[in-house]
Amino acid sequence: MAGRTYGQFCGLARALELVGERWALLIVRDLLVGPRRFTDLRRGLPRIPTNILSARLKELEQAGIVRRRVLPRPSSSVVYELTEYGADLDDVVIRLGVWGARSLGEPGPDDIVTADSMTMALRSTFRPEAAEGLRAGYELRMGEVVLHARVDGGELEVGAGALDEPDLVIEAGPAIKALMAGEATPDEVVASGGVRITGEAELLRRFAEVFRIPAAPAAVPA
Fold first, then answer.
1. CB neighbours (10 Å) of residue 150?
2. Please, what's the largest Cα pairwise distance for the chain?
3. pTM value?
4. Domains and CATH numbers, the chain
5. How many CA atoms lie within 13 Å of 30's alpha carbon, on the beta-carbon side?
């Protein structure tokens, strides 16, 4: 990494030197959810070549952003996790994710959704001020991806897997983005079949209020 510099005495330039390489911030995104084995990271980023993943992890280790840890026996597996310095990227990744979500169009035919990407998407779009008085457990199913979100007022807990007794189960595909961006109402996405729910319909309206993608940027006149 030492050879890839911008030659500027600037914090932003240094940040880009550390995490600006292709795939680096997506590795950080997944590690913000929790420690991961190499195979876990590879599964969550299926298009990254193995040699590139190895190189990025080595670079992030050398920069003090990521470290390796050996789990206790009998597993003795090696996991990668963020250092305290690396964990400081949490707010950066969340803000950048929200900023990018404003320009998301329709997903391409080969675009994938992972549990880690959706976990960070819910964290990024959560609006504590809109969750006042809400206490609910949501289960979100998107194909093979299943995760849950517990909302308790301004507090949010998100994780992979189902809930024992969710207040609302949401089964959705690309329509979840339209709902979260305010491009379609809860009634519209349900009526179209893009979202299916099990539970109290009012909780879908609250979901759309609490997890909100900001409005898309205005088009620039030609």
1. 16
2. 63
3. 0.91
4. 11-88 (1.10.10.10), 115-210 (3.30.1050.10)
5. 22
Burial tier of 75 (Cβ tally within 10 Å: 0-12, 13-18, 19+): exposed
- Cβ-Cβ contacts under 8 Å for 101 (sequence gap 6 or more): 121, 124, 125, 181, 213, 214
From CA 179, how far away is CA 177, in angstroms rounded?
Answer: 5
Structure tokens at 164: 């024992």
- pLDDT per residue of the chain (222 residues) written in tens, 0 to 9: 445 789 999 999 999 999 999 999 999 999 999 999 999 999 999 999 999 999 999 999 999 999 999 998 887 799 999 999 999 999 999 999 999 999 988 888 888 999 999 999 999 999 999 999 999 999 999 999 999 999 998 999 999 999 999 999 999 998 999 999 999 999 999 999 999 999 999 999 999 999 999 987 776 554
Q: Report, in angstroms and rounded to the nearest whole number, the Rg of the chain calculated over CA atoms.
A: 19
With 0-12 CB in 10 A as exposed, 13-18 as middle and 19+ as buried, what is 172? buried
Nearest to 213 by CA among 126, 91, 116, 111: 126
